């Protein structure tokens, strides 16, 4: 059995990987340099855990924040919106149409979204939940209220996305006051 064939193929694959890693570093550098020229980059990078690379991806994917009327539309675009479905809200009982008593079922997160933005905000939330700062305090507060860690990270990702959209629309730097709960 010839052992040189698999070894040579592995060497070629490693050479290809080395070339791709070099190209990846160059592209990453150019992306960050191009991002610095955007006027919103400074405001967006003021959000904790949104560094230059995440900011560059965000600017490249969203282009303008004014596409979204509300944070809920932005969440749906980013794949952070909760999806509810109900196929039979009403039913016929004894010849009368009545509304069903069971609550609307949650089906999870929406599936038609921008995958890079979902990874961006969930990655920022995961990093923020273990890092120190105001976002970790927010996350720990959610855990103290009895929320499961996965749902707390999702809530944190949605909060980071909402703050990012607000900062980008208003053209202001991050302020920890943005984390305060809204009045109902």
Automatic annotation (TrEMBL):
It comes from the Bacteria. Residues 42-105 form the Transposase IS116/IS110/IS902 C-terminal domain. GO terms for molecular function: DNA binding; transposase activity. It holds the Pfam family Transposase_20. GO terms for biological process: DNA transposition. InterPro entries: Transpos_IS110, Transposase_20. This is Transposase IS116/IS110/IS902 family protein.
């Amino acid at each position: 059995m010839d052992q040189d064939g698999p070894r040579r193929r592995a060497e070629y694959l490693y050479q290809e990987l080395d070339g791709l890693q070099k190209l990846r570093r160059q592209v990453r550098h150019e992306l960050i340099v191009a991002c610095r020229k955007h006027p919103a980059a400074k405001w967006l990078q003021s959000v904790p855990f949104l560094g230059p690379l995440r900011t560059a991806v965000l600017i490249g994917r969203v282009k303008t924040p004014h596409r979204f009327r509300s944070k809920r539309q932005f969440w749906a675009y980013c794949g952070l919106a909760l999806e509810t479905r109900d196929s039979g809200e009403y039913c016929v009982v004894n010849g009368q149409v009545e509304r069903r008593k069971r609550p609307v079922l949650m089906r999870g997160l929406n599936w038609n979204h921008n995958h890079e933005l979902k990874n961006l905000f969930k990655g920022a939330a995961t990093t923020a939940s273990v890092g120190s700062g105001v976002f970790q305090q927010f996350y720990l507060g959610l855990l103290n209220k009895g929320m499961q860690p996965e749902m707390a990270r999702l809530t944190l990702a949605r909060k980071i996305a909402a703050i990012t959209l607000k900062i980008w629309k208003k053209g202001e730097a991050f302020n920890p006051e943005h984390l305060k709960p809204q009045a109902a």
